[in-house]
Amino acid sequence: MVSDPIYGYVYFNREVEEQVVNSILLQRLRYIMQLQTAHLVYPGAVHTRFQHSLGVMHLTGLVAEDLTGKLVSIHGVDVLEGYSPETLVEAARLAGLLHDVGHAAFGHSFEYSVLWKKNVLGELSNHEKIGLKLLELLLEDRLLEAEERYGLTGLTSMVKKLLGERREGSPLVDAYRWIIRDGLYPTDIMDFLRRDSYYAGTSEYGYISYERLYRNTYPFIEKGVFKAVLDRTGIGEFKQYMVAKASMYEHVYYHSVCRAFDKILDTLLEKLDEEYGLADRVLALARGEVEGFLELTDVYMYSVLLGKALRDSTEVGRLARMMLVERKPLWRRVGGEYVLNGYRGPRFIGEILRLIFDREWRSKVASVLVEELAGRLSSIGVAEDDLWVDVLDISPVPKSLLYPDWGSGVPEIVLYTGKVSGRQVVPGPEVNLLEGELPLAVIFRAYVKREKYRVDMEPVVSRVVGEVLEALLGIDMGEYRRSIEEAYKSVRGIDYSRFKLTM
Question: Model pTM?
Fold first, then answer.
């Protein structure tokens, strides 16, 4: 039993889960923070991937028990394909517990700055694939032994199916993958929204009623295809969930000062890779060599960086001091942020998706903005090297669902709704979230080097960013203004005095 601020208590069993919790794969997560640089802005955000992993295991167990009961009640025991209910729930809990073990120091920043910039491909290209590799190297034998000892036939293979890439499989596997990773509101995200907002002190952004969501979700299997049907009484909570995820990204994960520190961290990781062979430690996993990777925790890297900050006169030392001691990032935000929001209509959705998917186009747009800003600010000594434009995308649903899979064509991000009566699930309208319901957004923010900042830049930068983006993307922001004006003109002369109430 573990005391937890989100759930009260988190429980794990001694037969199977305790040996996984006490393995190096889980224990090293105590030394990797859940949010890589947010603690530099939100001092309370020093919680760890270990805490999050326990939370995901706990929440996954609740959802898996609920789903298993519904599967048997609605579709009969044969739907379990010979697995015992205990095995399926245990496999789901273990997958929740292990889902983040492939993270290295600084979490997603490591993926971006080391793995993807070095173009690491194949079975080691992201933390999910690395985690599966580590499971095979360090835990698989123990899980096989436990499943035999406790009669949990098929446990290990099911855990690997839940953690690995999706293959053409059974609706049963799809149902349990939906819980952790393939659903619109997986337990991973539901836990980190509640947990991160709690520790950051921003509960107003991340609160969701996870129980209302999963208890109002029912399994529907037709022609061998699994669908998670949300009873219409839970649709309001689903919309709140999307708002919570978008709000946490905009205001916490993508806080402008956090992003300025991330920019420093990106440079530091690139340079430390040359000195400490960060990418090589990942590639060594393919040869079964795990120690170098397991060492890559925040504790280890912060020790290295603090030593550089105290003793090193190179650029690495200077940037480390800026980040860890002075807490004054090189870049300072200037001007208001420009937001392309999916609520504005199909023209905007198209541009947002292109900016999310096409990284070359995204870089080109940022480059044009920097060039134009430098031209307007050259009279006060600002050059292109003094400017940075950050382009951020926000998706309220998992990116694994949003990104295209060319094997199956254009994805349909569908919320299946319906009504449940007794043991019968009656599907209702299918809501394709890309067609208007999904609050996708792309945010543009400009930064200038701290020593070049002047307050009179603010209106100039805001105006230039808006003008350039509207010209470059072919978007007419005045269209909204004109529509509003036309609506007011069309009702001119009608007496509304009796309706003007505070409500």
Answer: 0.92
